[in-house]
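Minutes, project check-in
Item: structure for the 280-residue chain
Input as provided by the requester:
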Amino acid sequence: MVDPATATRGAVRQETVRQELFGVPIEAMTMEQALARVDEAVRERKRLQIGVVNAAKIVNMRRDRVLREDVLSSDLILADGIAVVWAARLLGRPLPERVAGIDLMLGMLRNQRGYRVFCLGATPEVLDSACARIAADFTHALVAGRHHGYFTADEEEAVAAEIAASRADVLFVAMTSPKKENFLARWSDRLGVPVCHGVGGSFDVLAGKARRAPVLWQRLGLEWLYRVKEEPGRLWKRYLVTNTLFCGMLLSELVKGVGRRSGPQGAIRPAAPPSGRSDA
């Protein structure tokens, strides 16, 4: 994989394929291409709202209409979970690689241009530690503003105004789903921030409060299992339920695919072509 620190240098805009999986249009994009798209949006000051999906979120989008609409309002949807990448391959709609939300965030922080970032989310203590880590480890980045994630609905408009006043290039929203998707869907058009990216619990990792899975676990697609090992009481039931439901959804899609390719007497029909190309 290309080093995210150098991924956007001299990057040339590349057309990518948008694959539809479980009714979600996911960009078949590498980390290098995603960082290049971010850099272009910052340079041209045009909106790029980024959504990321894993198995759990795709399952929850089936059950939560508002979450589904909010995710689909994104300009760019990427495969954050390895299960989504594996499912795409099985369905014949391949994605080149996993583009994890935290890795995309780190790639933005390493950019040599020196983005102005606004950090939204987490507790005040975790937020302070995460911003201190950014200042120490990513010398090109500038924290243009920050606000914790424990604000009320009545305070949302004031928080949005604070973000807009910061003149940030990038907004990182470190809140849980569906709160971060709801916030971005409501306010991204009025923030004046080119790139908006929901990063979940990434501030906890930056602050040293949570540990990320070792690289080997990540490469084996077992980062979710590492998280369960670290927080079994909170996560085991969630992953058991959502992973089981996701496997059921995948099986249903595979069966439908066989049905579409088979004629009434078992004749084989050509599979439907992949969805069209898009540079949106």
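Outcome recorded: The chain has one domain: 16-213+220-245.
No further action items on this chain.
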